[in-house]
Structures are given as C-alpha cells and as structure tokens.
Amino acid sequence: MNTKDLVDSGKTWQIKRTTLLSRMAVSLGYKSIEQTTFLEDYYPEGHESELKRQIDFFQNQSEYYRTAFELNNILIHQYTPESLGVKKAKKTPE
C-alpha cells in the first residue's frame, strides 16, 4: 500500500478493508449487513477457548515432565547397585 504521504495510514487501511469486506459480503449475498459491522473488532469465541485449552495442556505437560524428572532422580539415587544386591566386580590385574 503506497500511502507514505497520508496522515494516518492505519485509518486509511481500515477504510479500505471495510470497503473490501463490504463488497465481498454483497457479492456473497448478504443484503442486510452494514459497513459499520466491519469496523467492529471480531474475535471468534472458538479461538479463545482453543487458546485456553492449549495453555492448560502445556502447563499440565510441563508439570508432568517436571515431576517425572524429579521421580527419576529419586529412583536413581535410591537404587544403587548395592541396594539391588549387585556386587561390585573386582578389578582383575592385567
């Protein structure tokens, strides 16, 4: 968009976007839609619920990995060869 001489290029883009969306709506058969409808911000509810679901999943996944790591460290330190009944092999002279 070549609008470097305009005072507010953001506002110009919003107007052009509104005009484009309005023409698209008319060509798709929407008769009762007004241009002011396109000036309103639209954020589908599905996007918000999906984002929340992903955040919850990643938080739970992070907690799972953290606790699994801690459990692994506990088990490694708890079970030594001696505690399992494994005797250390004696070094044989070469």
Query: Can you summarize the main beta sheet?
Result: none
The domain tally reads 2
Order of helices and strands: HHH
Structural class assignment: mainly alpha
Helix percentage range = 55-70%
Features:
single chain, 94 residues, mainly alpha, 2 domains, rod-shaped
Can you give me a brief rundown of this structure?
The chain has 94 residues and is mainly alpha-helical. The protein contains 3 helices and no strands.
How would you sum up this structure, described in words?
The protein is an all-alpha fold and 94 residues long. The protein has 2 domains: 8-42, no CATH class; 53-87. 62% of the residues lie in helices and 0% in strands. It contains 3 helices and no strands. The protein has helices spanning 9-27, 35-39, 45-78. The longest helix has 34 residues, at 45-78. The radius of gyration is 32 Å and the shape is rod-shaped. The model has no long low-confidence stretch (mean pLDDT 83).
